[in-house]
Amino acid sequence: MAQCFRHQRKFDEALALLQKCLDVQEETLGCKHPSYARTLYAMAQCHLDKCDYSSAIRCLQQCREIEAQALGPNHPGYANTLRLQAQCKLAVALYEDAFNDLESCKRVYEETLGARHPLYAAALYTLAQYHRLKGETTKALELLCVCADIETSSLGPDHPGLANTKRMQAQCEMARGNFRIALGLLQECRRILEGTQGQAHCKHPSLPLTLANMALCHLELGEFAEAAQIPSSFKEAQEQLPGDQLLAMVGAWRIEAKCCMVRGRLKDAVKLLKACMAAQSPTTGEDNPDFSATLYMMAQCERLLGRYDQARHLLGKCAGIQMHMLGKEHPAFISTRKELALCLMAQGHLRAALRILLKCREAFSKTLGPGHFLVAGAMFRAAECQLCLGCVAIAERLLGECAKIEVATLGRSHPGLANTQRLQAVCRMAGGDFQGALKLLQANEEAYHEHLDNAHPMRASGLYLMAFCHLELESPEEAKRLLDETALIEGVTLGKDHPALANTLKGKAQCCLQLGQPREALEIIENCRAIFSAALVAGTFFKDLDLRKDRFASRLCVHLTSFTASLDITSQLRDVTRAREASTEAGVES
Predict the structure, then answer these.
(1) What pLDDT is recorded for position 193?
(2) d(CA 328, CA 558)
(3) 358 Cβ partners below 8 Å, 6+ apart?
(4) pLDDT given at position 351
(5) Which Pfam families match (predicted)?
(6) Residue segments in the chain with a per-residue pLDDT below the cut of 50
(7) What is the C-alpha separation between 518 and 58, in angstroms, rounded?
């Protein structure tokens, strides 16, 4: 009966029944009997489902002690306990302890069951998870390849277990920037879960997560039409899940929310994240790491909407949960601190943000190793801070280190490396070397042309920077041509109401000014203001901005002195200028 409750996601009811089982077994069999250990194991599974990792580890430790005495340390049952305990330890970033447990587990399975048994494959799968979390995707993929071979021969090519292996292979490929390969693996995974005979496995809870990952791959590849087709299948899979299993949708909803964030549809993302919270609160509760992951994404949305204080409040709650449940050295807690630094950057607290980012780099390096791509991510943001503080040489040094890590861990075709190269170009622009920046951006453009669709929004951001260089080099015609191409890409892929498009149009207005077309510039600025007003929260950006210090705004005002509505125009320009950093940031995030 307890297993039925667990299947229905009624974890507290299941735990209450299992506690009664323990009481009966203690009176009749004693607390050293293998049956008592099996009940503890079932309780640990419930705690793991609730993300209560510390309680799960305590149950498994007691279970492990009983089995070591009653069955011996070379029994498959003891190895099962080791494997589940390793999963819990991975969740709380006790990576080396988990690795030691998995090595012991693998040895027992190999000696007792053989190296072609499904349980041996399960040990390899969890070991691959360890390597993936450590950023060692090559090792993870090698293990998953062996795992898939065992599962295909022992369980068959249509078993859901094989689908899980293929999905983790896809996650590794996504981390390396190989989105096309990942998409192929996810399509195989989808085929297995839907079933070859009339969608036999269509109710499998892993299907929505697979579909959501497919949509994310399409977005990363710039295939927005294909990504848009996924939600219909996604909704069909969701509707076939029982109401008490909606918690299984949380991971998929979060990925769908991320897709919305990439497209600039922040309000849609917030709705999805609220649905996640509604599913999580009554089942797993609000004091667990999985709920904090939803809070984290909600905070990202608030930051991109310009609501920095609300974002910081959510991040405070998120950090409190993570500190209590996972500890200060867990990557999730460090990532939350990094997100807080981004809020501080947006509010102009650059030195405070820089201090946090440098600590994040040290913490990631200590937990995951100095060559992990999350270390590079913290360094990238620290370089942004240094650039804003005018420390161009320091920013360039950080970006050089960042690029080395990304090449080694993610490969030369990964979008993260392209972002780093673009910020290096911005450093050259900050130093007045617009020709050097333009050469770097043109090389970057060739790399994007080779690996991504021509209409990818990340390509658009590169074209935007190239246009800015041409503008500074007094080539407004070429700049305008590049900005027209940029606007076309952003309008098709991100939508005509995305802040990134407004920022591009604003640059186009600047070109019109240099070409002596002030009326056309005004029309474009009006369009910009409408987009910003619809997408962002008015009045939250640069409240203390001195408009006279904005060269672009001042230049436009000079050209428009003959208009009687010049005061209204100035007000409109102030709105646009205040939103500048937010729109640029939204463009980078997409």
Answers:
(1) 86
(2) 54
(3) 378, 382
(4) 95
(5) TPR_12
(6) 196-202, 243-244, 537-590
(7) 71
Q: Quick one: three-class SS letters along 117-152?
A: CHHHHHHHHHHHHHHHHCCCHHHHHHHHHHHHHHHH
Task: Please state the domain extents for the chain.
Answer: 412-493, 495-500+516-590
Residue 562 identity: S
Q: Please give the pLDDT value at position 536.
A: 52
CA 567 to chain centre: 43
Rounded Cα distance, 31 and 62, in Å: 10
Would you say the C-alpha torsion 525, 528, 534, 536 has a positive or negative sign?
negative
Token output for 497: 């109401």
Residue identified by tokens 């074209």 is 463
Q: In the prediction, which pLDDT does 476 show?
A: 93
CB-based contacts of 139: which residues, under 8 Å, 6+ apart? 128, 131
DSSP 198: T
User: Computed from CA positions of residues 413, 416, 421, 426, in that sequence, does the dihedral angle turn out positive or negative?
Assistant: positive
Cα dihedral sign, 148-150-153-154? negative
Residue type, 157: P
**Domain 412-493, CATH number (from 3.30.565.10, 1.25.40.10, 1.20.58.100, 2.120.10.30):** 1.25.40.10
Tell me the CA end-to-end span of the chain in Å, nearest whole number.
Answer: 47
SS3 317: helix
Give the pLDDT confidence score for residue 450 in this predicted structure: 61
Q: How far apart are CA 587 and CA 173, in angstroms?
A: 25
**pTM of structure:** 0.70
How crowded is residue 544: how many other Cβ atoms within 10 Å of its Cβ?
Answer: 5
